[in-house]
What does this fold into?
Amino acid sequence: MILDSLAWALFVIPAVLLATLGVELLLGVLAPNRGRPAARSRTVHSAAILMPAHDEAGGIVKTIARLQPALDETIRLVVIADNCSDDTAAIARTAGATVLERRDTRNRGKGHALAFGRDWLRNAPPECLVVLDADCEIAAEDLRLLIETAVEKQRPVQSCYLLRSRADDGPMTQISNFAFLIKNRVRPRGATLLGAPATLGGTGMAFPWALIEKAPLATSHLVEDLVLGIDFARQGSPPLYLGQAFTWSDAASRQDTLTQRTRWEHGYIQTALKHGLPLALGNLARLRLSQAWFGLSLLVPPLALLVTLGLVVLAATTLLALLGACAMPALLLAAEFVIVAALLVLAWLRDGQATVSAATLARIPLYILWKIPVYLRLVRKRETQWVRTKRKGED
It folds into this structure.
C-alpha cells in the first residue's frame, strides 16, 4: 500500500504536465492553416516601434534597412540606445531612425529601456506601440496586421516569433530552434483553440496605447515580457496570439544559444512556479476555464526539462513496480511519453522540416544531456541578471 501510494504520488505531476503538453500539441497539429485575412478597407492606425538596442552597432543598420519598407508617416521607428559602449546611437540615426540614448547602469535590462521609450512617446502618443528587438525582422504586411489587430481588439497581440535555422547551425542549435518552434507556434496555435491567452515573447508584440501607457515596464526581471502578459491576463485584457504574422531572428551560436536559453529558462521556471498554480486553481474555482488553462500551460516546463523529469519519474515508478507496487503509474506514464513523442513527430512533419532535419532530430537524447547543466545551475546558482546574447559573427 505504501509503495502504491508513493508510485501514484510520483506519477501525478509529470502526468498532468505531459497531458497538458499533449493536448496543446494535438490541437496545434490539427488546427487549420489560417491565411491572411481578406483584403478590406482598413483604417490607418498610428504606431511607434520601440527597439531596445544595447551595443548593436554591428547589425542595427541591416535591421533598420529590412524594416524601412514598413515605415511611413503613420509608423515610426524609435531606437533606444541603452547603456551602449559602441556607436549604436550614431549608426541608427544615420540609418534614419529616431534615437533616444539612455544611460543608467544601476537599472539595466530591456524593461527599463522600454519604459524610457514609452515615457518619451507620451507627448504625442500613437494608437499602438510595437516592441521589436534589434536583431529581429517583420514584413511590412505582417507589421500592419499586428498593429491593426491590437488597435481593433484593444488587447496585446503576440506575433509568431521564430528562429531561422541555417546550414551552418550545429545540431544542438537546430534542435533548440525546433523546441522554440513548438513553444512559439504549435502550442500557441493549440491553446488559442481553447481560448487561452497567449504568452508574450518579448519581440514582435503590439499593445494599444491605452493599455501600455501605465503598464509596469520598468523592471529588471529576466522574462519581463512573460510577467507583463500575465498581468494583462489578470486585468481582463489577455494577450492574443496572431499566427498569421511572423517575426524572425537568426539563431545564436551553440554556446551563445546555451547562454540565452539558460537566462530565459531560469526566468521562465521561476515565474511559472510563482504564477502558474494560482492562475490555474483560482480561475478553475471561478469556472474561467480558458484562463485556468493558461495557468496550467505556464506550468509546463521547457521540453528538455519536462522529458528529463518525466524519465526520472518513469524510472522510479518502474523500480517501485518491480518491488511490488502497482504497475499502472509506470505504464500510464510510458504511454504518455509515446503519445507526446508521436505528436512531436507530427508537429515536425507539419511545421518543422525547414527547421531541423530528421537525422538531427534523432539526436534529441544528446540535446537533453546538453541541457542538463542549465537545470543543475537552476538548483545551485540561478541566473538572476540580464546578459546580452552575442549575435552570430561577434567575437
Strands lie at 47-53, 75-82, 98-102, 128-131, 136-138, 157-164, 205-208, 240-250. The longest helix spans residues 254-285.
